[in-house]
Amino acid sequence: MEIHAWVMEMKLLERRLSPYEEKYGVLREDFYAALSSGKLTRYDEYDETRTDFARWKGIYETWRRRKQAYNEQLRQRGLTDVLRVLPAH
Q1: CA 78, 89, 9: angle at the middle one, nearest 5?
Q2: Rounded CA separation 36/23 (Å)
Q3: For a Cys-Cys bond, which of 26, 39, 41, 56 suits 34, CB 3.0-4.6 Å?
């Protein structure tokens, strides 16, 4: 996949993450760290949060994988080789 496609996909995923950040009032990284360390288990008993947290986690993990792939491709090819510059009008 080209680096531009990674960027576009990450932007779409970010749009899907934003409603959860707004609803729960924390950024995705902080949510994920708390969830991964077991600090959010008390919310497991609530259907809405359990469902939201599962979706939020899945979207964020997908975003992280895409970000990792983007970073790897950028590291391998370099910014000047992947930078998309549109012609001047």
Answers
A1: 45
A2: 19
A3: 39
Bin 78: left if φ > 0, else alpha if -120 < ψ < 50, else beta: left
This prediction has a pTM of 0.85
Q: Within 10 Å of residue 31's Cβ, how many Cβ atoms? A: 21
Find how far residue 65's CA is from the centre of its chain: 8
Task: State the Cα angle at 40 between 20 and 24, rounded to 5°.
Answer: 25
Cα–Cα dist 68/47, whole Å: 31
Alpha helices in the chain (DSSP H): 3-24, 28-36, 47-77, 79-82
Instruction: Read off the pLDDT of residues 16-73 as tens digits, 9 standing for 90 and up.
Output: 999 999 999 999 999 999 999 999 998 888 889 999 999 999 999 999 999 999 999 8
Q: Which tokens belong to 27? A: 């950024």
